[in-house]
Automatic annotation (TrEMBL):
Entry GO CC: membrane
InterPro entries noted in UniProt: C-type_lectin-like, C-type_lectin-like/link_sf, CTDL_fold, Ig-like_dom, Ig-like_dom_sf, Ig-like_fold, Ig_sub2
Keywords, in A-Z order: Disulfide bond, Repeat, Signal
Organism name: Penaeus vannamei
Domain Ig-like: 209-310, 325-408
Tree of life domain: Eukaryota
GO biological process: cell-cell adhesion
SUPFAM superfamilies hit by this protein: C-type lectin-like, Immunoglobulin
Name under which the protein is recorded: Contactin
PANTHER family given in the database record: CONTACTIN (PTHR44170:SF6), PROTEIN SIDEKICK (PTHR44170)
Length: 444
């Protein structure tokens, strides 16, 4: 009898041990299942989670109210414009807008006026009866203002719901219940290495245009028109398909800067070849100014930096000028009186004949502005002088009229003093990285 009881106890103990082992063995898959369900409830990239819903704040492209709702519904079953169902949800949305929209733009919701003074969320059909405080006060009334959009009130310093007609293109907020995430169609889903198409030549990867060679300022030398009677500007962009190019001239119309497209068919002087603009027989009055190019393919358009087309010239000197005179042992400044020119010119002073240039020494200096200075005159300075200029961008130069310099005897020396406007700096308002020339001369 005792032997039978022992066998039963052992059998029951083995059965209990087997059940506990089975329960422990089943605990792991249950835990994994809960983790999987929790992971599935996480909102996708660019969606924000709050309680049992995911929200997406769409900034671009802006849409009308009906277009915005259609876009939200296109994400999948259960997705719609946001339904502001309670004060807690309203607080979450306004906090997000306060932190992420400093420009205070307007955002469509699914709120609409179903019947006069009765508002409802079109997304989930919930009533707005308990949410009337979220609507901004003192809005007046309008027959077509049947929709609600979040807007910032400068008067009340807070976000609230504004009555709108739904025709304006605004930003909008989409909402989807987390229970429907498995049916969500979202463009932000992470892509695997299998996404896309195979392109073996990296130069043929589809992409929008990008300027790789910016055009540079050009200057046409009017004095060399008989040799080179055209000017060209190059603009180069990368992209695939290969971009096409257009050139524009910038001009002011009614105090507004506009870009006028250059049409080679309308003016045969212009040629656009690839990204190069060629202007034949340039005209100083019509063609000077700023230009830019645009490169376009099916993926977009890019605009280059603006460049300046200018014309280099050196006009003629006055035919005659009066003679100059000064006292012996006194300082003297002789002004060049150069002709009109663009851009800068270099100055050369000649004495008695050309090209017998005046040599600079401790007593004589040719300033960067073209004036000839003597710290004191002596009889060896008597002679025939002329100021001559040469363009800094071409070999063209002009000779000034010849005049006499006479030196009169004087019993006294001039007291030491700086010449007028010295010291001088060229340029007068230098910028960092630019060479500066400093000049100083004293009379006496």
């Amino acid at each position: 009898m005792s032997f039978r009881i022992l066998i039963c106890v052992v059998a029951l103990s083995a059965l209990a041990t087997s059940q506990r082992t089975a329960e422990r063995g089943q605990a792991k898959p249950i835990s994994n299942q809960l983790q999987t369900e929790e992971k599935e409830k996480q909102c996708p990239k660019n969606w924000f989670s709050y309680k049992s819903s995911c929200y997406k704040f769409i900034r671009s492209p802006v849409k009308t109210r009906e277009q915005a709702r259609a876009q939200c519904m296109a994400y999948g079953e259960g997705s719609d414009l946001v339904s502001v169902s309670n004060k807690e949800e309203h607080g979450f949305l306004t906090r997000h807008l306060h932190e992420n929209d400093p420009l205070h733009r307007q955002w469509y919701t699914s709120g609409y006026q179903k019947t006069p003074n009765f508002w409802e969320n079109e997304g989930d059909g919930t009533s707005f009866q308990d949410m009337m405080e979220a609507i901004l006060p003192n809005q007046g009334s309008g027959p077509d203002r049947n929709y609600l959009a979040y807007s910032y009130s400068d008067k009340y310093k807070e976000w609230g719901l504004l009555m709108v007609d739904g025709q304006d293109t605004l930003l909008y907020i989409c909402e989807v219940p987390q229970a429907n995430l498995n049916m969500l169609i979202d463009e932000s889903v992470e892509r695997s290495h299998e996404y896309g198409i195979i392109v073996r030549d990296p130069r043929k990867v589809p992409k929008g245009p990008k300027i790789i060679t910016q055009p540079k300022d050009r200057m046409f030398d009017l004095a060399r028109r008989e040799v080179i009677n055209y000017v060209s500007v190059m603009c180069l962009a990368d992209g695939y398909p290969h971009p096409t190019y257009e050139w524009f001239k910038e001009a002011f119309e009614n105090d507004e800067l506009v870009a006028k497209k250059i049409d080679p068919l309308a003016d045969p002087r212009f040629t656009v070849s690839g990204g190069t603009l060629i202007i034949n027989n340039p005209r100083q009055v019509e063609d000077r100014g700023k230009y830019h190019c645009r490169a376009t393919n099916e993926f977009g358009t890019v605009t280059s930096e603006s460049i300046q087309l200018s014309f280099a010239y050196v006009a003629e000197f006055n035919w005659k000028r009066s003679n100059e005179q000064g006292n012996q042992f006194w300082g003297k400044a002789i002004y060049c009186d150069p002709p009109q020119h663009y851009p800068d010119v270099q100055y050369y002073w000649a004495r008695d004949y050309f090209p017998n240039f005046v040599e600079e020494d401790r007593r004589t200096m040719v300033s960067f502005d073209g004036n000839l200075y003597f710290s004191y005159l002596d009889y060896i300075d008597i002679g025939h002088y002329s100021c001559n200029v040469k363009s800094t961008v071409s070999g063209i130069g002009k000779n000034g009229p010849i005049f006499n310099l006479e030196v009169n005897p004087h019993p006294n020396y001039q007291q030491l003093k700086f010449a007028n406007n010295f010291p001088k700096a060229f340029p007068e308002a230098p910028v960092r990285g630019v060479d500066v020339r400093l000049e100083c001369i004293a009379f006496g």
